[in-house]
Structures are given as structure tokens and as C-alpha cells.
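[Discussion] Sanity-checking designs against the backbone

I'm trying to build intuition for which residues belong where. Below is a C-alpha cell string of 119 positions. I'd appreciate it if someone posts a full sequence so I can compare it with mine line by line.
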């Protein structure tokens, strides 16, 4: 189980696999959750049929939970977007694409290229 605060809203993910714990490690909270989310084995298997590549159960669970989170957060007037974002010289740039296509790699390359001008 992972408890985080995202956009000021306490969320509890009832996860089976540790993948989500790693992704959420900087957002932990002890606040009582306003939103509690879980996915079934069937939902993980359904997600597997949508993917062109073979992904672990933990990764597929994370995708399912994040999709549910995005829908739930709309009820709290919060928009969730799957992206990698970087700031260079005070301007923000977002990389949006399907999972596994290189958003994080692109951000890392920008950080290397722009050095202290980027974060």
C-alpha cells in the first residue's frame, strides 16, 4: 500500500507490486486518504492485451492505477498528465508520449546538454 499526497490530495494506492512505491517515493504522506484506488488481476491482464511489448505485472498495475487516478482527480478539479517536464532558462518544456518511448531519456539528455541552466 502506498499513501501519497498529489496536488494537495491524499491518495492511497492498494498495490500488489513495488513498482509504484519507487515512483511515489518522494510524495509520501500519513494523511488520511481522500481517494483509495486498487486494480484487479483482470484489469492488469486487460492492460497487457493493449501493450505491444511485454511488461511486468508491476508496470501494468502502475499504468492501471495511474489511469484510475487521472479520472478520480478530475472530480477534485485536478488534471493529470503523463509527461516528463524540464525547465531551461526559466521556460518549461513537457515531453508527452506513450510509455516506454523515451520521455525520461529525452529529459536526461536535456539536463546533460544544458547543465546548470536546466532542472
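Best answer:
Here's mine. Compare freely.
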Amino acid at each position: 500500500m502506498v499513501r501519497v499526497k498529489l496536488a494537495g490530495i491524499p491518495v492511497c494506492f492498494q498495490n500488489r507490486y513495488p513498482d509504484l512505491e519507487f515512483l511515489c517515493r518522494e510524495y509520501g504522506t500519513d494523511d488520511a486518504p481522500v481517494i483509495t484506488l486498487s486494480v484487479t488481476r483482470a484489469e492488469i491482464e486487460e492492460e497487457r492485451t493493449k501493450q505491444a511489448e511485454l511488461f511486468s505485472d508491476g508496470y501494468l498495475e502502475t499504468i492501471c492505477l495511474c489511469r484510475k487516478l487521472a479520472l478520480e482527480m478530475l472530480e477534485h478539479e485536478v488534471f493529470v498528465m503523463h509527461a516528463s517536464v524540464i525547465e531551461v532558462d526559466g521556460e518549461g518544456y513537457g515531453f508527452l508520449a506513450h510509455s516506454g518511448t523515451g520521455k525520461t531519456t529525452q529529459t536526461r539528455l536535456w539536463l546533460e546538454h544544458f547543465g546548470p541552466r536546466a532542472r
